Amino acid sequence: MGAGGIFAPWVRAYISRSGAPEHIGWQVAVKDRLNAVKNPYAHLKLPDITIDKVRDSMMLWDPIHFLESCPSSDGACAMIVADHETAKTHSSAAWVLATAMRSELGQFPGRDTVRPQAGVDCSAALYKDAGITNPREQIDVAELYAAPERSAYGDINWSGIIAFIVGLIAGWSVQDGLVPALQGPISTGLLGGADLSWLVGIVVAGAVYLGLSRRTAAAPVVAPAAGASE
Prior knowledge:
230 residues, 9 helices
């Protein structure tokens, strides 16, 4: 069946209940694929994609078309959590005002897959802790999906990518793996086979990212509103 066969009925139910226009999904697919063209590591590169091409592509799981589906690949990201004073020194910092978690069984009689109760309860708790009383007015959801050149969140975080690569190399240098390719020169030559990759990689990547972020900070970050949780 695959993920599409599971989610397609939920998508149909959401469209039926909310009256969401059919072309919204096509627009999201075009936006995502055009953003991917800017990433040298992206699996799919479709610079000529259009809404019409998405609409006319093969229907896989009604209403999900071929060009709306994801490729068979994985991605990763990293997030550094810092205290209030450290975050104020970085122009790209995002403030965590509140956190919440709720869960429920994936399948049980009467479960609303369009509006699961766990999601409703989690949102209510999160909004309450963050001081949000009118989500539609206080949360700019559209900004999360804007193109990088127009989004307040910017494009690729090159400081993070550089820090990741440097940390990877540093960790490899003190790694003692099972195969020669994973045995770093410092570990085998100076440490007698000791494996410190788990520590060195984290420390070096964190230090490099901190240094690059401080240098690229263009403006002070505006602190969250008074009374908001940090």
